[in-house]
Please model this.
Amino acid sequence: MSKVTFERLLEAGVHFGHLKRKWNPAMAPYIFEEKKGIHIIDLNKTIVHLEQAAAAMKQIARSGKKVLFVATKKQAKEIVAQRVAQVNMPFVTERWSGGMLTNFQTTRKSIRKMSLIDKMKSDGTWDTLNKREKLFKSRQRDKLEKTFGSISDMTRQPAAIFIVDILKEHIALAEAKRLNIPTFRNCRYKLKSEIG
Model:
């Protein structure tokens, strides 16, 4: 990851917080000032915490473990899918299936179904099916690919989870907490691809 500078964060508009009337009191230490009814976030503290999170994620990646990226917001889907696919990590950009982590055995069964259909196509069994069965299997494969395609090579639970919006992905956050999986959270409404 490239070094994040104060100027790049300022350029991306990361310093804009919520309206003063909609603020969360837990954010008080991170608010620099209030201007025209909007809180301005302290970017120096943001940089410090961003560097700590990046160092922790690098440590996990260097140890060969997987970090699961969760971003189902339309603003973040494409950016996360492009960037995370480059580093060969699992990601979820469609709907989070409840129990994806807490009921991991069932998730693995669904992924095996998808690979079984692929195997049928490669070994010639596909040609023995009638037209209706082929259509059913194709639709089933497409549905499974949409939901589980990006995590198909994840053989065990991830070492950590990066969640783009914890308000939207509250189920993923609850599952991670239940399983004691460390989470990296981002609750910003703007996600710029140049930040990385």
Observations:
- The radius of gyration is 20 Å.
